[in-house]
Protein backbone atom coordinates (compact mmCIF):
# COMPACT_ATOMS: atom_id res chain seq x y z
CA UNK A 1 0.00 0.00 0.00
CA UNK A 2 -1.01 2.61 -0.84
CA UNK A 3 -3.15 0.91 -3.52
CA UNK A 4 -4.87 4.02 -4.82
CA UNK A 5 -6.00 4.69 -1.25
CA UNK A 6 -3.77 7.68 -0.56
CA UNK A 7 -6.17 9.38 1.87
CA UNK A 8 -6.55 6.23 3.94
CA UNK A 9 -2.80 5.66 3.89
CA UNK A 10 -2.20 9.20 5.10
CA UNK A 11 -4.69 8.60 7.91
CA UNK A 12 -2.82 5.44 8.82
CA UNK A 13 0.45 7.39 8.94
CA UNK A 14 -1.23 9.89 11.27
CA UNK A 15 -2.39 7.01 13.46
CA UNK A 16 1.11 5.52 13.60
CA UNK A 17 2.62 8.93 14.33
CA UNK A 18 0.34 9.12 17.34
CA UNK A 19 1.75 5.90 18.78
CA UNK A 20 5.01 5.57 20.72
CA UNK A 21 6.71 3.42 18.08
CA UNK A 22 10.40 2.60 17.94
CA UNK A 23 10.16 2.26 14.15
CA UNK A 24 7.90 1.07 11.32
CA UNK A 25 8.65 -1.59 8.69
CA UNK A 26 6.96 -1.58 5.26
CA UNK A 27 7.18 -4.93 3.46
CA UNK A 28 6.70 -3.73 -0.09
CA UNK A 29 4.01 -3.39 -2.77
CA UNK A 30 3.86 0.40 -2.76
CA UNK A 31 1.46 0.28 -5.73
CA UNK A 32 -1.11 -2.14 -7.10
CA UNK A 33 -0.17 -4.86 -9.58
CA UNK A 34 -1.98 -3.29 -12.53
CA UNK A 35 -0.87 0.35 -12.40
CA UNK A 36 2.13 1.99 -14.11
CA UNK A 37 5.58 1.65 -12.53
CA UNK A 38 6.26 5.32 -13.15
CA UNK A 39 8.80 7.58 -11.49
CA UNK A 40 5.86 9.80 -10.53
CA UNK A 41 4.28 6.95 -8.55
CA UNK A 42 7.55 6.17 -6.80
CA UNK A 43 8.20 9.81 -5.92
CA UNK A 44 4.69 10.21 -4.51
CA UNK A 45 5.20 7.24 -2.21
CA UNK A 46 8.64 8.46 -1.18
CA UNK A 47 7.07 11.76 -0.15
CA UNK A 48 4.48 9.86 1.90
CA UNK A 49 7.21 7.81 3.55
CA UNK A 50 8.85 11.08 4.57
CA UNK A 51 5.79 11.88 6.70
CA UNK A 52 6.51 9.10 9.21
CA UNK A 53 7.73 10.67 12.45
CA UNK A 54 9.50 7.46 13.47
CA UNK A 55 12.20 5.63 11.48
CA UNK A 56 10.76 3.76 8.50
CA UNK A 57 12.49 0.72 7.05
CA UNK A 58 11.22 -0.42 3.65
CA UNK A 59 11.91 -3.57 1.63
CA UNK A 60 10.74 -3.72 -2.02
CA UNK A 61 7.84 -5.78 -3.32
CA UNK A 62 7.18 -7.40 -6.68
CA UNK A 63 4.64 -4.77 -7.76
CA UNK A 64 7.25 -2.01 -7.94
CA UNK A 65 9.72 -3.83 -10.18
CA UNK A 66 9.29 -7.58 -10.87
CA UNK A 67 5.86 -7.16 -12.48
CA UNK A 68 6.60 -3.96 -14.39
CA UNK A 69 6.94 -5.85 -17.70
CA UNK A 70 3.15 -6.23 -17.76
CA UNK A 71 1.29 -4.04 -20.22
CA UNK A 72 -0.92 -2.68 -17.42
CA UNK A 73 2.24 -1.61 -15.57
CA UNK A 74 3.61 0.26 -18.57
CA UNK A 75 5.55 -2.60 -20.22
CA UNK A 76 8.73 -1.38 -18.54
CA UNK A 77 12.06 -3.11 -17.94
CA UNK A 78 11.92 -4.69 -14.45
CA UNK A 79 15.66 -4.39 -13.90
CA UNK A 80 15.65 -0.71 -14.81
CA UNK A 81 12.77 -0.18 -12.39
CA UNK A 82 14.69 -2.04 -9.68
CA UNK A 83 17.65 0.27 -10.23
CA UNK A 84 15.32 3.26 -9.87
CA UNK A 85 13.78 1.90 -6.65
CA UNK A 86 17.25 1.45 -5.23
CA UNK A 87 18.36 4.96 -6.11
CA UNK A 88 15.18 6.65 -4.84
CA UNK A 89 14.56 4.74 -1.62
CA UNK A 90 18.03 3.57 -0.56
CA UNK A 91 20.48 6.43 -1.20
CA UNK A 92 22.39 5.92 2.06
CA UNK A 93 22.69 3.74 5.14
CA UNK A 94 20.00 5.78 6.88
CA UNK A 95 16.41 4.64 7.22
CA UNK A 96 13.51 6.62 5.83
CA UNK A 97 11.23 8.70 8.07
CA UNK A 98 11.85 11.97 9.92
CA UNK A 99 13.79 10.37 12.79
CA UNK A 100 16.09 8.37 10.54
CA UNK A 101 18.47 5.84 12.07
CA UNK A 102 21.65 4.34 10.69
CA UNK A 103 21.40 0.71 9.58
CA UNK A 104 23.89 -1.96 8.61
CA UNK A 105 23.70 -2.28 4.81
CA UNK A 106 24.69 -5.32 2.77
CA UNK A 107 26.16 -3.18 0.00
CA UNK A 108 29.07 -2.39 2.32
CA UNK A 109 30.37 -5.84 1.39
CA UNK A 110 32.04 -5.65 -2.02
CA UNK A 111 30.67 -9.01 -3.17
CA UNK A 112 27.13 -7.73 -2.54
CA UNK A 113 27.57 -4.05 -3.42
CA UNK A 114 24.30 -3.86 -5.39
CA UNK A 115 22.07 -4.86 -2.46
CA UNK A 116 21.53 -1.50 -0.81
CA UNK A 117 18.02 -2.56 0.20
CA UNK A 118 19.07 -5.35 2.60
CA UNK A 119 19.36 -3.88 6.11
CA UNK A 120 20.08 -5.04 9.68
CA UNK A 121 19.55 -3.22 12.98
CA UNK A 122 19.03 -4.07 16.64
CA UNK A 123 16.51 -2.95 19.26
CA UNK A 124 15.74 -4.19 22.77
CA UNK A 125 17.93 -7.31 22.47
CA UNK A 126 16.35 -8.30 19.15
CA UNK A 127 18.07 -8.44 15.76
CA UNK A 128 15.97 -7.17 12.84
CA UNK A 129 16.72 -7.69 9.14
CA UNK A 130 15.06 -6.97 5.81
CA UNK A 131 15.64 -9.37 2.93
CA UNK A 132 14.77 -8.69 -0.69
CA UNK A 133 12.61 -11.77 -1.33
CA UNK A 134 9.61 -10.95 -3.54
CA UNK A 135 6.47 -12.51 -4.94
CA UNK A 136 5.98 -13.44 -8.61
CA UNK A 137 8.16 -16.49 -7.91
CA UNK A 138 11.01 -14.28 -6.70
CA UNK A 139 11.63 -13.17 -10.32
CA UNK A 140 12.71 -16.69 -11.32
CA UNK A 141 12.01 -18.37 -14.68
CA UNK A 142 10.57 -15.40 -16.54
CA UNK A 143 13.53 -15.02 -18.92
CA UNK A 144 17.32 -15.38 -18.87
CA UNK A 145 17.94 -11.85 -17.56
CA UNK A 146 15.47 -12.45 -14.76
CA UNK A 147 17.13 -15.75 -13.89
CA UNK A 148 20.55 -14.12 -13.68
CA UNK A 149 19.12 -11.46 -11.37
CA UNK A 150 17.37 -14.08 -9.26
CA UNK A 151 20.42 -16.28 -8.69
CA UNK A 152 22.59 -13.34 -7.65
CA UNK A 153 19.95 -11.88 -5.30
CA UNK A 154 19.11 -15.30 -3.85
CA UNK A 155 22.77 -15.79 -2.93
CA UNK A 156 22.86 -12.31 -1.39
CA UNK A 157 19.72 -12.98 0.64
CA UNK A 158 21.05 -16.27 2.00
CA UNK A 159 24.30 -14.55 2.97
CA UNK A 160 22.36 -11.75 4.70
CA UNK A 161 20.20 -14.28 6.51
CA UNK A 162 23.32 -15.94 7.92
CA UNK A 163 24.70 -12.53 8.87
CA UNK A 164 21.55 -11.67 10.85
CA UNK A 165 21.62 -14.88 12.86
CA UNK A 166 25.38 -14.61 13.44
CA UNK A 167 24.97 -11.11 14.88
CA UNK A 168 22.08 -12.25 17.08
CA UNK A 169 24.20 -15.09 18.46
CA UNK A 170 27.16 -12.77 19.01
CA UNK A 171 24.99 -10.36 21.01
CA UNK A 172 23.08 -13.13 22.79
CA UNK A 173 19.82 -11.56 21.64
CA UNK A 174 16.48 -12.98 22.69
CA UNK A 175 14.94 -13.14 19.19
CA UNK A 176 15.38 -12.50 15.47
CA UNK A 177 12.83 -10.70 13.27
CA UNK A 178 13.03 -11.05 9.48
CA UNK A 179 10.91 -8.96 7.08
CA UNK A 180 10.31 -9.55 3.37
CA UNK A 181 7.57 -9.05 0.80
CA UNK A 182 6.99 -12.61 -0.45
CA UNK A 183 4.48 -14.95 1.18
CA UNK A 184 6.76 -17.97 0.90
CA UNK A 185 4.13 -20.36 2.29
CA UNK A 186 1.48 -19.46 -0.31
CA UNK A 187 0.48 -22.78 -1.92
CA UNK A 188 2.00 -22.18 -5.36
CA UNK A 189 5.24 -20.97 -3.77
CA UNK A 190 5.99 -24.36 -2.16
CA UNK A 191 6.20 -26.42 -5.37
CA UNK A 192 9.34 -27.76 -7.06
CA UNK A 193 9.12 -24.81 -9.46
CA UNK A 194 9.37 -22.33 -6.60
CA UNK A 195 11.88 -19.51 -6.51
CA UNK A 196 11.88 -19.74 -2.71
CA UNK A 197 13.21 -23.28 -2.22
CA UNK A 198 16.86 -22.47 -1.54
CA UNK A 199 16.06 -19.50 0.68
CA UNK A 200 13.54 -21.48 2.73
CA UNK A 201 16.02 -24.33 3.20
CA UNK A 202 18.62 -21.84 4.45
CA UNK A 203 16.06 -20.20 6.74
CA UNK A 204 15.02 -23.51 8.31
CA UNK A 205 18.65 -24.45 8.91
CA UNK A 206 19.50 -21.10 10.51
CA UNK A 207 16.35 -21.01 12.65
CA UNK A 208 16.93 -24.58 13.87
CA UNK A 209 20.53 -23.78 14.84
CA UNK A 210 19.40 -20.55 16.56
CA UNK A 211 16.85 -22.32 18.76
CA UNK A 212 15.26 -19.12 20.08
CA UNK A 213 12.16 -17.20 18.94
CA UNK A 214 12.00 -16.02 15.32
CA UNK A 215 9.33 -13.79 13.80
CA UNK A 216 9.04 -13.99 10.02
CA UNK A 217 7.10 -11.01 8.62
CA UNK A 218 5.69 -11.33 5.09
CA UNK A 219 3.28 -9.56 2.74
CA UNK A 220 2.13 -10.08 -0.87
CA UNK A 221 -1.11 -11.99 -0.16
CA UNK A 222 -2.38 -9.04 1.94
CA UNK A 223 -4.54 -10.94 4.44
CA UNK A 224 -3.66 -10.73 8.12
CA UNK A 225 -2.41 -14.06 9.37
CA UNK A 226 -0.50 -15.34 12.39
CA UNK A 227 0.64 -18.94 12.18
CA UNK A 228 3.42 -21.41 12.90
CA UNK A 229 3.75 -23.32 9.61
CA UNK A 230 7.14 -24.92 10.20
CA UNK A 231 6.01 -28.28 11.48
CA UNK A 232 4.87 -29.92 8.27
CA UNK A 233 6.28 -33.08 6.69
CA UNK A 234 9.64 -32.57 5.06
CA UNK A 235 10.48 -29.48 7.10
CA UNK A 236 12.45 -28.95 10.27
CA UNK A 237 10.11 -28.75 13.21
CA UNK A 238 10.52 -25.17 14.38
CA UNK A 239 8.03 -24.48 17.18
CA UNK A 240 9.70 -21.17 18.06
CA UNK A 241 9.17 -19.69 14.59
CA UNK A 242 6.08 -17.52 14.21
CA UNK A 243 4.96 -16.05 10.91
CA UNK A 244 3.05 -12.79 10.48
CA UNK A 245 1.44 -11.96 7.14
CA UNK A 246 0.42 -8.31 7.19
CA UNK A 247 -2.77 -6.82 5.75
CA UNK A 248 -2.51 -4.73 2.61
CA UNK A 249 -4.00 -3.88 -0.79
CA UNK A 250 -7.45 -2.40 -0.08
CA UNK A 251 -7.19 -3.26 3.61
CA UNK A 252 -5.22 -0.26 4.86
CA UNK A 253 -3.93 -1.28 8.27
CA UNK A 254 -0.73 -1.91 10.21
CA UNK A 255 0.23 -4.56 12.73
CA UNK A 256 1.65 -3.39 16.05
CA UNK A 257 4.34 -5.81 17.24
CA UNK A 258 5.36 -5.49 20.88
CA UNK A 259 8.47 -7.15 22.30
CA UNK A 260 8.59 -8.12 25.97
CA UNK A 261 12.17 -9.07 26.79
CA UNK A 262 11.04 -10.62 30.09
CA UNK A 263 9.10 -13.30 28.18
CA UNK A 264 12.11 -14.85 26.50
CA UNK A 265 10.30 -17.93 25.18
CA UNK A 266 7.39 -15.96 23.68
CA UNK A 267 8.38 -12.28 23.51
CA UNK A 268 5.98 -11.09 20.79
CA UNK A 269 2.43 -9.78 21.02
CA UNK A 270 0.34 -8.31 18.22
CA UNK A 271 -2.47 -5.88 17.50
CA UNK A 272 -3.97 -4.43 14.31
CA UNK A 273 -4.01 -0.64 13.89
CA UNK A 274 -6.42 0.97 11.42
CA UNK A 275 -6.85 4.60 10.34
CA UNK A 276 -9.02 6.57 12.70
CA UNK A 277 -12.26 7.76 11.13
CA UNK A 278 -12.16 11.38 10.15
CA UNK A 279 -8.42 11.84 10.60
CA UNK A 280 -5.99 12.63 7.85
Would you kindly provide a written description of the structure presented here, covering whatever features stand out?
- This protein has a single domain (6-273), classed as Metallo-dependent phosphatases (Purple Acid Phosphatase, chain A, domain 2), CATH 3.60.21.10.
- It contains six helices and eleven strands.
- The strands form three sheets. A seven-stranded mixed β-sheet has the order 3-4-5-6-7-9-8, with helices on one face.
- The protein is globular and about 50 Å long.
- The protein is α/β, with parallel strands linked by helices.
What's the helix and strand layout?
Elements lengths: L5 H12 L6 E3 L12 H11 L6 E3 L19 H12 L14 E2 L13 E5 L2 E5 L4 H4 L5 H28 L3 E5 L17 H14 L3 E5 L6 E3 L13 E5 L8 E6 L8 E6 L7
Parallel strand pairs: 1-2, 5-6, 6-7, 7-9
Antiparallel strand pairs: 3-4, 4-5, 8-9, 10-11
**Topology as a string of helices (H) and strands (E):** HEHEHEEEHHEHEEEEE
Oligomer: single chain
CATH topology tier name: Purple Acid Phosphatase, chain A, domain 2
The helix-and-strand class reads alpha/beta
- How many structural domains can be distinguished in the coordinates? 1
Distance between the termini: 16 Å
Features:
single chain, 280 residues, alpha/beta, Purple Acid Phosphatase, chain A, domain 2, 7-stranded mixed beta sheet, two-stranded parallel ribbon, 6 helices, 11 strands, 17% strand
Structure, briefly:
This protein is an alpha/beta fold and 280 residues long.
Amino acid sequence: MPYGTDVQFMRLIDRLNGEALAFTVHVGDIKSGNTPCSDETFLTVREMFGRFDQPLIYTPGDNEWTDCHRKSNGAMDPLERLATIRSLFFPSAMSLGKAAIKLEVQSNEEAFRHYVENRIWAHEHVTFATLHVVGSNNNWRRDMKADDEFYARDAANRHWLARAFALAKERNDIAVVLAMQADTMFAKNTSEESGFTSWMAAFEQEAAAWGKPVLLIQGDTHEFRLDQPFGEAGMHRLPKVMRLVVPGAGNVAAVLVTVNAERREAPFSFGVLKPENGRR
